[in-house]
Model the fold of this input.
Amino acid sequence: MNVAIVDYGSGNLRSAAKAFERAVAEAGLDMGVVVTADAEAVRDASHIVLPGVGAFADCRQGLIALPGMVDALNQAVIKNGRPFLGICVGMQLMATVGREHGEHRGFDWIAGEVVALKPDDRSLKIPHMGWNQLNLTRPHPVFEGISENAHVYFVHSYGFACADGAQVVAMADYGGPLTAAVGRDNLLGTQFHPEKSQATGLALITNFLRWRP
Done:
């Protein structure tokens, strides 16, 4: 089995790969970790990770520019049900539409829109950057064993407004509620960066690699 971390020119690929390699080693899993821009490698992977840093539209264009990648993601994730983890903008791309610098179509895997953060407390800075506490809204296998008051690391200016609250897995607070994780079926997205979230992030990555939805 291989976990494919999609390389489309936008993401903390080195830190993500190191975190996944560490999780594989410490959990004694018989898995390889590959960072790849090759659609066939993604199509053949047992687990797929889509990282993302930057603007929604730029990340979307980066994916589209890779020959066959969008089709490979749809086949592997939606048709074949492979476990999928979207991180930060990788999670946001799962939405119906992104509204950062215009209106841009997402994958529409989880209905909702990506909108600018507007904290009630105007002294709070945007982007939301740093550690914040999770509020788990429902059980999920990838969050098994993770403490209700666990802290994770965020860096973002836009957030996922999910159309169906039942598909929200975790929330956080930053001058008002914000979506920290969404999921359905074999899909999971985290607005925070598990690869930067120390022990909690490593536990989440390990759970994801063991996940067989």
